[in-house]
DNA sequence: CCCATATAGTTAGCCACCTAATTACTGAGG
DNA sequence: CCTCAGTAATTAGGTGGCTAACTATATGGG
């Protein structure tokens, strides 16, 4: 069963009501933007899983494969964790799945007895190639509602919001 | 162990290289916007979990509590699933946790022998009240890098991207 | 040379999301 | 009536995140 269609977007009125209800003086517009962003982000994440599942992948597995290909050679699980922004434990899990599917191989490191080297298999490279056209096409569709200028602005705002994320996690 | 600091943001150059590598003619800027949005969305989701965990909640559990309070009375799990945009199975899991913590109670429905009615307990309402000031403050911090006008624009663009999400899931 | 500490990778266990299957009840047609 | 399709909620099992703890190897100081 799929998630229910689309939850009605939160309104400015709702935000105002909540803030007033607690006797606070927060800016309803700011709160609304934050809440909508989180909602859209969550929906996008789920849509992304649907998208990648067409190719027998998940978002995490795709990102790992793409990172490997972009890097152009073998990479250690630690390096992968760093460039994907996830923990090493998560990389272990992703690799387990990818190796089971034969998209990736784990080898021992030559220099470090503790280390491993992960490489794309031919099958893995082929998989990326097979999905490329449709993948990029759909990505373009995602932002097709924005003009070229708007996309430029959007990128800039996104960067500033990225910095603002620390407001949620600081202390 | 935390996820590694911050993966370097994908660049326009990277997008161009990938597209060229597959011999496609996609617009690198569009692809970049889509990829960055997904990356920021994912980071925001993780930050949100950190934020809510301060109050002994998760994003999902908070949204459920807030929805109940906003609704002003009891609500069935099905209604909750619809307004949160998740499956009923997910609601069952969230309720299990919330009920264990005493923030919510499940009662039998008067009209429908199959149905349940979920209500906020005093403890649940108090929890929301306790966290309100800090919560809204941090939400404001998230979008503090944007001017009032930019926030207005951002909301509009976000809506259009929300519509574009179907490009990922259609068919 | 050896031990202490640090690092690489994995494992185990938690949470939220999903799908699919199960159980219990409703309500409409024969 | 009574059966049978539909709906409410839960359960079971999978995945990807996380943290914490464990194993194995590296490395630097006495």
Automatic annotation (TrEMBL), chains A, B:
It holds the Pfam family MarR_2. Keywords: DNA-binding, Transcription, Transcription regulation. SMART domains: HTH_MARR. PROSITE patterns: HTH_MARR_1, HTH_MARR_2. It comes from the Bacteria. Gene3D superfamilies: Winged helix-like DNA-binding domain superfamily/Winged helix DNA-binding domain. Residues 30-163 form the HTH marR-type domain. This is Transcriptional regulator YetL. It comes from Catenulispora subtropica. The lineage of its organism: Bacteria, Bacillati, Actinomycetota, Actinomycetes, Catenulisporales.
